[in-house]
Amino acid sequence: MSEAGTVTLTDAGAIAPFGYELVRTRALTHPESPALVVADKSSDPVSYAEMVDRVDGLAARLRAGGVTSDQPVAVLLDRSTDSVIAMLAVMAAGGAYCPLDATAPAARLAAVVGALGAGVAVAERADAHRLPPGLTIVPPSGPAVDPLPAVSPHLDALAYIMHTSGSTGRPKGVAMTHGGLARLLRWQVGDGRPGLRTLQFTATSFDVTFQEVLSTLATGGCLVVASEEIRRDPAALLDAIVEHRIQRLFLPYVALQLMAVTAQRRQVVPDSLEHVVTAGERLIITPAIRALFAAIPQCRLDNHYGPTEAHLVTSLTLPADAAAWPVVPSIGAAVDEVVCRVLDEKLADVADGDIGELYVGGSGLARGYHGDSALTAERFVADPFALAPGSRLYRTGDLVRARADGDFDFVGRTDTQLKVRGFRVEPAEVENALLSHPRVDAAAVGLREVADGVPVLVAYLQTDGEVTQREITDHVRGQLPPYMVPTRCVPVERLPRTASGKVDTLALAALDLPDPTGPRPAEAPSLTELITSIWARVLGHDEFDADDDFFDVGGDSLLATWVVTELEQELGRTVELSVFLDYSTVEDLAGALGSEATVPEQRPRSSQIVTLRAGPSGRSLYLVHPLGGELLGYRELARASRAPLRLLGIGWQGEPPAFGSSLAEIARVHVEQLRTIERDGPYRLAGWSFGGVLAYEMAQQLTAAGGDVEFLALLDANPLIDPITGLPMDRTPFLDMLDSVLARLDDPASTEADIEELTSGQTWTQLMGAPVRGASSGGYLRTALQTARSCMNAAMRYEPAPYAGPVHLFQATGSDDERQARLAEAMRGLCPGSLTVIPISGDHWGFIRGEHVAEAARELDSALQRVGRVGSMTNGS
């Protein structure tokens, strides 16, 4: 790490305009302090020295790739330490950071990249196919290049471009300068301090990310990066705050409300919190939020307001006594170096207490809209009150009321712009997507509150003939990011109009949302009926079958939370979100929760094939279960993979295999089920740990039956051959441990706490592939343990025969090097055809959880690509 000049944080006139210079300076004084941590991973923290070295290395590769000042650099990365390092590296290289929404469809990504005119993108090679052709792809990790002279951008140079929804139907890029970013940091660095632990919760495509990242790293704090699972699951968020002792948190209102409800229901107090900032949506002090902050009186709550075009504009710190908070607080007063003017249609001042449009000026304004000078001129106007020439004001479109104490009350919008989960949504963009459906004649979009006071996007549709909500959402989902897909569709005979011919939004808002559930029966419904009823209420339609996936019929992670909340209320017990996400059809969810209709007391043993990630039909990779028969552990790997095929899991459901079953017998059950889906292949199989051994035997059986196995991957899978003796390894101690655990479960004196201890410990992790909060019941755990006991006994007696086909052996480099080398050598004797050994950073568990999952997924994708039948996985550059 090279030296950098001293930067004074407290002197506004001396502070560097370049945010990364502040970070590098802090790194010089605290090189070994933790800078970055991944919240749900077991990996070690990234120190300031390591972070700066990685940033400088990527910046050098970007500059070698042609990045210069003001040049947009697209960034498409999953949430990780790499995504933070990429942000800093783009700015260090002099480019403009342009994050892409990883959840957006390819058409949306192409539109954004096209509007940027970017020539370079930071992305994993496996993700290149999601980007338009012609881009130079720079992976976040790569070989070192000679460093180029340091870059110190001018105040008016571009720092980043953030895209928001556009009223023309196209996303618009807000171009922020280093001067605007420096203004934000000058105001905010006083809230940071060395060691302060801040959660990086915000989506990288949302400008609050800069507050989280730069204000933390510029002051020596530790940034804890939240995974997508933590972001979408309030219970997981609460757990992460408690586990990592988070002290500062930035949350949009919806996430804050759901976390508060979860904390109240679970009686968990996140007492490490010192400072919570909410922004992006109107703050409402609900009883749950009031109760949360009453329980942590040392925690300060700030309400921030600011459009992307000006970042942070106003701030309100609520008083210490939560009981005294108003239900709807103000948005506060203008922060330093910001000018707020409340004006009428003629740009004249309005009197205090009157309502007007908020115009914002000062040093924090964006340059304008990238590549759209007409829209820039329309929204950024000359300040008629300023003495300095060239002063501008941004027309926010927000209606406010100025108070005598200097604060502002938010009243509404001058236009139709909406806020959904903190994101700005232009109804016209959604309406354009709806109108592209051939049956939709007219469409309007609005917000409605349907549960817990949380607003959702509703589409009102005038159609030519009957069209289902599922057809509509499937159509729109291919064009827009998930937060812009309407949650409910309301058919109307004709859109109501005002006297001037405009859509009457008040009349639409007065329409009753149809109750798709109908009247509830007087008698207690079955579990299947209960789940169906809850789904219909939450989704707003009943156009689904018992075997339809929740996320394919209009559901998302927020709605899944509501489903779980209602189930908990109806059943009177805890229902984990992780269970719902693993069993995402009515039929499977009823089975997981114990429906007598779908889960008889004695279920036959069987193979279960489930979709882990959707993809092209007929092009599948099958991931075979580890010891306990469950597929939970593959969720992260499936999410990280970018291979253009469908990922299916082969699990064990129902009664455990009989103790004494051979591994060949267990594999035969799966092979029979697999061949009902694909008769002859080509088959692609992979398995982690015991799952790899089982996949190996399945490949043997499929080949013997005349099937075509084109790909077999053993993910740190040990076929239980001792590399020294060549004999099966003795795992009797592991079996003895399972027997002792089962005995505890059968002991009448065992408590729920004992079961909770088992499900959260290493035993459960070894069996399931991932820790589980509360595995529902002792019966659920017992079944998994019995399955593991039978599988381990079968594996101990397994004598693998040589396999003639190609095999890919993925090995964890964090394990015993000598043992791994001997194991690879032993495997070569079993694989006379072809054995490719692929090293993966980390330990045995890194294949399914931790920051090395992404590496494992990339290498798996690359190996699949090399077999030649998966299709192109590059972007054509």
UniProtKB/TrEMBL annotation:
Listed under GO biological process in this entry are:
amino acid activation for nonribosomal peptide biosynthetic process; secondary metabolite biosynthetic process
One function term, GO molecular function aspect: phosphopantetheine binding
Does the keyword Cell cycle belong to this entry? Answer: no
Q: Which cofactor does it need?
A: pantetheine 4'-phosphate
What are the UniProt keywords, alphabetically? Phosphopantetheine, Phosphoprotein
Q: Which residues form the Carrier domain?
A: 522-597
What's one GO-annotated cellular component? Answer: cytoplasm
Query: Known InterPro entries for this protein?
Result: AA_adenyl_dom, AB_hydrolase_fold, ACP-like_sf, AMP-bd_C, AMP-bd_C_sf, AMP-binding_CS, AMP-dep_synth/lig_dom, ANL_N_sf
Q: What is this protein called?
A: Amino acid adenylation domain-containing protein
What does UniProt list as this organism's lineage?
Bacteria, Bacillati, Actinomycetota, Actinomycetes, Micromonosporales
